[in-house]
Amino acid sequence: MRIKGRFVRVSLSKEYVNCYVIASPDNRHALSLHFKEGRFRQLTVPPHGLYKYGQQNVFLKQRSRIKNLLDEAEHEIKYKRVLEAAHRINKAFQEHKKYEAGSIHQLTRVSLDFIKKSVFRDGKVDLAATDVTAIQEAWVKNVRLPLITNMKADEDDIKELFTEVPIYCKYIVKYLHKPGPKKILEKFALALNELSTTPMALYSVNPKTGQYNLVLDKTRIATKIVILGNDLFIASVTRVLNDIKQVPMGQKILLALHEKAFTIQPPTMSAIDRYADGRFYAKNSAGGAIAFDPGNFIVGDGSTIKMELWRHRDPAIALYHELLHIYYNSNPVKFKPVDKKSAAKEIKKTKETQETEGTTIAGGWSELEEAMITGVSFKDPITNELYDFIEDNYIKENGQELISENHFRKEYARMRGSDHYYRRPYYVKSDELTPKQIKFRLTYSYKYR
Ligand SMILES: [Zn+2]
After folding, report:
1. H-only helix segments in 331-440
2. Is 50 a member of any domain?
């Protein structure tokens, strides 16, 4: 290269990023240039003086990396790839934090763009005017549900998204100065952090406390079952409990539990697993309290409903399942695993030994407990022991009662006068123990009352 008629050598600095050295052929005259934002900036130092700028160059390298990540994120947002977009924004922020590099302005702009286009799916939404409930509902409907039902999406990536995004929002606000974006991101972080404690809005606006009264013939038994929710929730749950009461097996459990104090409340926003007909549906659970969606007639996200007809489930069956968790927590039972080799020996054993031996099963969330409550077989993956809860004879041999979701499915269908019922074939996922037949005919040899 020639400058003012003199030949010069232009070379990239070996040690430093984005630095060039221009030197005379004899190397006696040299100057360094720093390339930044499309312009060369002259550094008034000889090449060996560049070490001072080393740190700055790391900064620049990171800066362009972060810019690339955010540019990519914008692209992902445009093509509606939520997981990828969130991943890149988060990564850009982590690098920003680490190196104090990159444009916080761009980071904020892309984050807000993400909330508008990926969470609300509405580029024109006024984020300043949205409330926490609206953010939560948009998040569940447009981000969470499509991801958990997307077979191609990686489970770990999804988990990462659900845990990282709230953390990201919590920390990025510390870097923001403009009150507008700061407020929006704070609100967004709050909305996501409270998903698991916020009850579904449908059942929880203006909540009240109701108490369930078990009316049998003309006796009215005040139970300690508290129903906590709005009028719709209290009325719906009461109706479902009264449906359960119509079945002897249901009445028995309600009577057994009437002295037991526990609450039935709406599921939280994080329990929602389906959006259809303009509303959310949630899965139920039982711990200290029962979380129950009295309007949900389907088990799961609905994606396999045509193949698995048992997934249509009346809310009474669903609540009965949860009541059994509470019931077995207070009344644990013992079951001995099926042991084919010693089956003959067992007959000789007295009833007394049978009662003292065996595994104690209560109403927790273990697969064994769920299998008993559902009424499906379970094989312990470690010991290979089989608990054959699908077989009535197995339950009777263990001296236990025929009480489970599956038994209730049958009796409930009978009470409603149906000519068939569907048995639930598995709890978590189908395996070699899962029976093929799920539909059973009902015959009425006696008049059901
Ligand atoms: Zn359960």
Report:
1. 343-348, 351-356, 367-374, 392-397, 405-415
2. no
Predicted TM-score (pTM) of the model is: 0.81
260 and 189 in a common domain: no
Closest of 108, 13, 98 to residue 62, by C-alpha:
98
For the stretch 254-272, pLDDT in tens is 999 999 999 999 999 999 9
| Within-domain flag for 53 | no
The secondary structure of 244-256 as a DSSP string is HHTSHHHHHHHHH
Cα of 439 vs centre of ligand 1, distance in Å, is 21
Same domain, 291 and 271: yes
Residue 355, pLDDT > 50, answer no
Q: From ligand 1's centre to the CA of 131, what distance in Å?
A: 34
Examine the domain organization and report whether 313 and 209 are in the same domain: yes
pLDDT at 50: 47
The domain of 393 spans 332-441
Do 246 and 151 lie in one domain? The reply is no
Could you tell me which of 249, 240, 87 has the C-alpha nearest to residue 168? 87
Q: What is the CA(148)–ligand 1 centre distance, in A?
A: 20
- pLDDT per residue over 68-101, tens digit each? 999 999 999 999 999 999 999 999 998 888 776 6
Give me ligand 1 centre to Cα 325, in Å.
Answer: 7
Residues by chain with Cβ below 5 Å of ion ligand 1: 370
Q: Is 225 found in the same domain as 175?
A: no
The tokens describing 392, both together, are: 């009535």
Distance (Å) from CA 193 to ligand 1 centroid: 25
Ligand 1 centroid distance, CA of 196 (Å): 18
Counted domains in the chain: 4
pLDDT tens string 17-56: 567 777 777 777 777 777 666 667 666 555 455 445 555 5
Q: How far is the centre of ligand 1, averaged over its atoms, from the C-alpha of 284 (Å)?
A: 8
Task: Measure Cα distances from 356 to 261, 330, 334, 364, 397 in Å.
Answer: 29, 18, 8, 21, 14
Q: How far is the CA of 137 from the centre of ligand 1 (A)?
A: 26
Residue 446 lies in a domain: no
pLDDT of residue 266: 98
- Say whether both 110 and 209 belong to one domain: no
Using the mean position of ligand 1's atoms as its centre, give its distance from the Cα of residue 74 in Å.
42
Q: What is the CA(237)–ligand 1 centre distance, in A?
A: 18
Find the 151 Cα to ligand 1 centroid distance in Å. Answer: 24
